[in-house]
Write a structure and sequence with these properties.
Blueprint (H helix, E strand, L loop, with lengths): L9 H24 L10 H22 L9 H15 L2 H18 L5 H18 L8 H13 L5 H22 L1 H6 L4 H18 L70 E8 L2 H14 E9 L2 E8 L2 H11 L1 E9 L15 E9 L2 H9 L3 E4 L8 H11 L1 E7 L6 H13 L3 E4 L5 H9 L7 H13 L2 E7 L4 E3 L2 E3 L4 E5 L2 E6 L2 H13 L5 E7 L4 H14 L4 E8 L5 E5 L1
Parallel strand pairs: 5-6, 5-7, 7-8, 14-15
Antiparallel strand pairs: 1-3, 1-4, 2-3, 9-12, 9-16, 10-11, 12-13, 14-16
Helix pairs in contact: 1-2, 1-3, 1-9, 2-3, 2-4, 3-4, 4-5, 5-6, 5-7, 6-7, 6-9, 7-9, 10-11, 13-14, 15-16, 17-18
Length: about 575
């Protein structure tokens, strides 16, 4: 049996993320089913799962960077990675609020993980989440978060007692949400976002104690109350406090009364009955300063509702429901640099959230790209793109979402990164369960994806098209230039911090002192084995003169070899090279 933590160190944070992801995976469908507020779109459980998946992936990346070391990462590194991962991967209203809760906790837990720090972390988290919502409403996840903090506040004991008290406070508050929010009471369900937060706190209890929490608030003696009629209340764990008007055995499959979900409810910051919600949900990440974000909040608040802006230190996650999606994005452009923009259309008929869907296309290509420049190129070629920002690899949920956006019966998935092999495979498997025929071409670099996309022919047979794209990718050798961050051993010798590394097919082959000379050496080594076409993808800060010089170098030293140049935009590597 693993040793139980006395405080929340990096290993405990990693375990918490993993258990929270498992818990939300188990409860995702049921949380989706009880999602009637602020929009009855049935995706709160999925959004929370994808948010925590991104947080867990970020923590795993921190541990992967320490694999060769004898010690685990620092607690501060783990909790900050958790918060950052949740921020960049947040989905929907509840996912965005959860990201702010985790960010609030991380700000305290980075200084210590004992009981006292956890109490302060829960309070900081609840306060930060409430400030992030333009017009808070009671009976939502905000209420549940505040109750968790209040439950833990009176505990002066050890970490285990504090986490149990927080969980019990959250669970009791969750049971009261139908009394606070009329739409929940009429539907006979508890708040879906609050239910998800209880699952996350339950995972924290299991992390600290080694046991999943008792399903229901404990008495003063620490014992669980007797379940009502041995059944469960929909939206509550087994043994939870019953909600007036909800039968102990729950409602039929789907988690709502047979009369259906009440409609016409306003969104999170517009709770009046009978108010139809806006037409679009707009979400994006934003690089901007505090002053610009303050002005952005005011402008978006005037444009729509369900406004939640979370983050800080120059990076923000913006969520809003509006009728004019273009104006919401334009406001972000004026405030700073928005990216990962997602716009979902709500069909307001009957108050339900229905995705407007045309007849699916026969075939589509989904491609992961390292920068916005290649994203534009691939979009112009007809592909659906997912941008992998430096240090921010997409989670499987983001790839599944892209496959759904492609809206086709057949999809070819190009991950363009060996590290995304398992993530892409998981996304493909999930999409297949939804009836989409998905082929995963194991491209390991963006230039291989470009080569595969160049031979894509949607009019030929699916298998034939996949074979041709796979062959084109496999015939493309790839390289990239990188800047060494520290002194280390490589296959080409010892490099120093600041050296320019030339990686060919993923391995360091050249160590140089500047980009032009290193690029020439890499090109010569690759072309020594033959080639007909060189592809150069320049990073955002690389001058055009480098491309001109490398084109001339290829012409002079390698006859009958053509060169094409693309601008990759904001990408990790200053230069990507492909040779076909």
């Amino acid at each position: 049996m693993p040793q139980l933590p006395d405080d929340l160190d990096a290993v405990a944070v990693r375990t918490w993320c993993s258990l929270a992801l498992e818990a939300l995976g188990r409860e995702r469908a049921e949380i989706d089913a009880i999602n009637v507020y602020p929009i009855a779109d049935g995706d709160t459980g999925t959004n929370l799962y994808l948010t925590v998946e991104s947080a867990a992936a970020a923590v795993e990346a921190v541990f992967a960077a320490h694999e060769t070391g004898a010690t685990a990462p620092a607690t501060a590194d783990a909790v900050r990675a958790m918060a950052h991962g949740a921020l960049i991967g947040a989905r929907g209203n509840s996912g965005t609020i959860l990201a702010q809760l985790l960010r609030g906790m991380a700000g305290v837990l980075a200084d210590g993980g004992d009981a006292a720090h956890l109490r302060r972390a829960l309070t900081r988290a609840a306060d930060a989440a409430r400030r992030a919502v333009a017009h808070p409403v009671e009976g939502t996840v905000l209420t549940v978060a505040a109750a968790a903090a209040e439950g833990a506040e009176g505990e002066e004991s050890d970490l285990r007692t504090v986490v149990h008290a927080a969980y019990d406070g959250a669970l009791a508050a969750l049971a009261r949400t139908p009394e606070q929010l009329a739409v929940l009471g009429r539907a006979g369900v508890v708040d879906a976002g609050g239910r998800g937060l209880v699952a996350v706190l339950g995972a924290l209890v299991e992390t600290v104690t080694g046991q999943a929490p008792v399903r229901g608030p404990r008495t003063a003696h620490g014992k669980a109350p007797t379940p009502v009629d041995g059944g469960s209340v929909v939206g509550l764990p087994v043994g939870g406090t019953p909600v007036e008007g909800v039968p102990a055995g729950g409602f039929p499959a789907g988690g709502v009364p047979e009369t259906g979900v009440p409609v016409g409810e306003g969104p999170l910051d517009c709770p009046e009955d009978g108010v139809a919600g806006p037409a679009f949900e707009v979400i994006y990440l934003l690089e901007a300063g505090d002053e610009q974000v303050a002005r952005l909040r005011t402008r978006l608040d005037a444009l729509g509702d369900s406004l939640v802006v979370v983050g800080g230190d120059g990076l923000w996650h913006v969520h809003v429901h509006v009728d004019d999606a273009g104006a919401a994005v334009e406001a972000g452009v004026e405030a700073g640099r928005p990216y990962r923009i997602r716009i979902t259309h709500f069909a307001t008929e009957s108050g339900h959230d229905l995705r407007v869907q045309a007849e699916p296309a026969q075939r589509a290509v989904v491609v992961v790209v390292p920068g916005d420049g290649l994203a534009r190129l691939c979009t112009e070629a007809g592909a659906t793109t997912v941008i992998a920002r430096p240090g921010e690899p997409p989670a499987s949920g983001e790839l599944v979402d892209a496959i759904r956006r492609a809206h086709a019966r057949e999809v070819v998935l190009l991950p363009n990164d060996a590290a995304l092999r398992h993530t892409a495979a998981a996304a493909a498997e999930q999409a297949r369960t939804e009836g989409v025929r998905v082929a995963l071409v194991p491209t390991r670099a963006a230039v291989q994806g470009i080569a595969a996309l160049a031979v894509h022919e949607p009019d030929r047979g699916f298998d034939e098209d996949v074979v041709a794209m796979t062959a084109a990718a496999g015939a493309t050798r790839y390289a990239e230039l990188a800047v060494a961050e520290r002194q280390s051993w490589t296959m080409a010798g010892i490099c120093q911090a600041g050296d320019i590394l030339g990686l060919i097919d993923g391995d360091v082959a050249v160590i140089g002192v500047d980009v032009p000379a290193t690029a020439r050496t890499v090109l010569d080594r690759m072309l020594a084995a033959g080639g007909e076409l060189v592809t150069l993808v320049l990073g955002e800060d690389v001058p055009d003169s480098l491309a001109d010089a490398l084109e001339e170098h290829v012409r002079e030293g390698h006859l009958a070899v053509d060169t094409v140049v693309y601008r990759g935009g904001h990408q990790r590597a200053p230069l990507l090279i492909g040779v076909e």
